[in-house]
Amino acid sequence: MAYKSLTDFIQVLEKADELIRIKEYVNPDLEITEITDRVSKMPGGGKALLFENTGTDFPLLINAFGSDRRMELAFGVGNLDDIANEIEALFKNLSSPKKNIIEKLKLLPELGKVASYMPKVVSGRGKSQEIVQENPDLTKFPILKCWPADGGKFITLPMVITKDPITNIRNVGMYRLQVFDKDLTGMHWHKHKVGARHIEEYKKLGKKMPIAVAIGGDPAYTYSATAPIPDHMDEFMLAGFLRKQKVKLVKCITQDIEVPSDADIIIEGYVDPEEDFILEGPFGDHTGYYSLADYYPKFHITCITHRKDAVYPTTIVGIPPQEDAYIGKATERIFIAPMRMTLVPELTDMNLPVYGVAHNLTIVSIKKTFAGQATKVMNALWGAGQMMFNKILMVVDDEVNVHNYQEVYKAFVKYTDPVHDLHFSMGPLDVLDHSASKYAFGSKLCIDATRKYPEELATKSITPEKNESQQALLTKLKEKFTEIRDAGFVGADDHAILFLSFEKSKSLHVKKMAKDLSNFGGFSSIKMIVFFDDKVNVHDLPSCVWLVTNNIDPKRDCYFIESGHNRFVAIDGTRKTLANDNFERDWPNIIVSDKNTINRIDEIWEQLNLGEFIKSPSEYYEPLIINEGAVVKK
Fold first, then answer.
1. Catalytic annotation present for 285
2. Do 444 and 543 belong to one domain?
């Protein structure tokens, strides 16, 4: 479904009862974030929010993608799986052998359909260029300062358009822009991204790099900028496929680059590869932790244009769930078909758990037909595009519903030998991964929870002792180990996974505790013990998954225990320090709102037309904060 404008999409959201208009003034500094954080964590993602009084001439739209229903409305489908099914059917039809000329001719309508999705440059100016700011000024827009320790205001939903100077192939990516002046931002290109590669090519040529940033327009544009498509594919072609109508592009006014004719706002400018980088950040990121300050290119703005009725769309990220979780879920559903058809034919389903923040945890099911197939899938996925950033991969059989965590847990309990079926590798990690000992490089873990062939079984088996009750075992634990603050089992009926919060106070404390626990009676059914910092609620499974997947470098932080009847893996999910862990990098703080902002939103809640009062999520996570600021003081 093609939308003529972002306003067109807003009208559809409102008709579907998926949007709330907020007429009261709300400050873009911190206050909009605090409101959105409360709403987006509601069951199902809450509603999209249109702030009509922002202190500027532009209304602000946020949480527009923050539910499965709104993602479906963005693409005009009844179910996101419909898109994957369409891709699969199209590929099969085009690639299947044809017996004669008649069958080949029947392909012409399909080929014509594909051609109709290709972007097209049109003459003249577009709607996105109705108003021209020849003296560009970003302060005219309601750009958010999202979190208290952020380095400033950030544009968080931009489509950054660049071209390879050699091949002229376009790339559209989403990279945050920190505002430093009315006509200057940072350009947050991670080293693995296409935009960062483009700037290196311009540097070799000794040329400035033209850039355009599009904001708003058809929601398919915005989504496509986040999509993990191959480098040589144009994201606007994907947008054309999703909206079933080609994207019309117009030339920029001051830069040699093209932009969507019907976007809401266009920011034109350049990066000079010879210029010194600027210190950008910190920024409260999608991991739920701050990404810390680092040096990135300067983006000089030469012109800003916009529609007469422009809306400023934006998003916030932080402790999940947030709006980005639903964008990630759309990617999960849309791209499973291409992965199955090109890389992993045995793949039957995939789940990127919300609390695994996209790259930290992936669960896949496969149709297993031979020994070692889970590790074959592991190697294929870790070599596939953005899946190279995945840190923990769990593989289950195809009869397991990867979206039913009880079924996944039972598969782990039944089929995983904690010593034999955990596989490690080394490779690139997301730049935002704060737990690896080295920047953007570390270890990965694959948990094989598939049914085993005889060749895969461990040579040594353990006969479990008779189990005590969970409560009796937990009571004995706390009595014997005074540093333990709380303990809880994941399953209600077994002892397979144990979460422990404890006061970590010495070097290699987790490793030593794991050895002590190996001699503790009643542990023979335990397969995994996960250690958390003392103030973590070990009975909150989603938060524990979020913390441990963020806080481990798997190979470094997993300890394997085989002693008597005990056979388990201990995992150190605690914060790492120089004193206790010889960890030399800065450790970031968890993201929460400040008390003044929380109190302010509490006071005005009834005026905002948001319904029943929602308590700030930040108050729940505040006990985990070590100190103010983005960096934990050692």
1. yes
2. no
Which contacts of 196-199 are long-range, i.e. CB under 8 A and separated by 24 or more positions? 197/164, 198/162, 198/163, 198/164, 198/165, 198/171, 199/271, 199/273, 199/297
Query: Which strands make up the sheet holding 441-448, listed edge to edge?
Result: 347-351, 361-366, 392-397, 441-448, 422-428
- What is the bridge-based pairing of β-strands 159-163 and 170-173? antiparallel
* Cα 436 to Cα 491: distance, rounded to the nearest angstrom: 29
The residues with which 159 forms a beta bridge, in sequence order, are 214
Regarding predicted confidence, which is higher, 189 or 378?
378
Percentage of the chain exceeding pLDDT 90:
79
pLDDT (average), residues 300-323: 97
The CATH number of whichever domain residue 266 belongs to comes to 2.30.110.10
Residue type present at position 157? L
User: Which residue of the set 285, 433, 486, 572 is catalytic?
Assistant: 285
Are 506 and 434 part of one and the same domain?
A: no
Asked whether the predicted pLDDT for residue 325 surpasses 60, the reply is yes
Q: What is the pLDDT of residue 99?
A: 52
Distance between CA atoms of residues 492 and 489, nearest Å: 7
Question: Of 395, 424, 456, which residue constitutes the final position of a domain?
Answer: 456
Q: Report yes or no on 262 lying in a domain.
A: yes
**Residue 252 is part of which domain span?**
72-78+116-313
In this model, does residue 274 exceed pLDDT 90?
yes
N-term to C-term CA, the chain? 52
Sequence-ordered strand ranges (E) for 10-51: 19-22, 48-51
CATH number, domain at 520? Answer: 3.40.1670.10
Q: In this model, does residue 222 exceed pLDDT 60?
A: yes
- C-alpha–C-alpha distance, residues 458 and 454, integer Å: 9
What is the rounded average pLDDT for all residues in the chain? 92
- 362's enclosing H/E stretch is strand 361-366
Q: How far is CA 159 from the centre of its chain?
A: 17
pLDDT over 60 (residue 107): no
pLDDT level of residue 469 (50, 70, 90 thresholds): confident
What local confidence, expressed as pLDDT, does residue 605 receive? 97
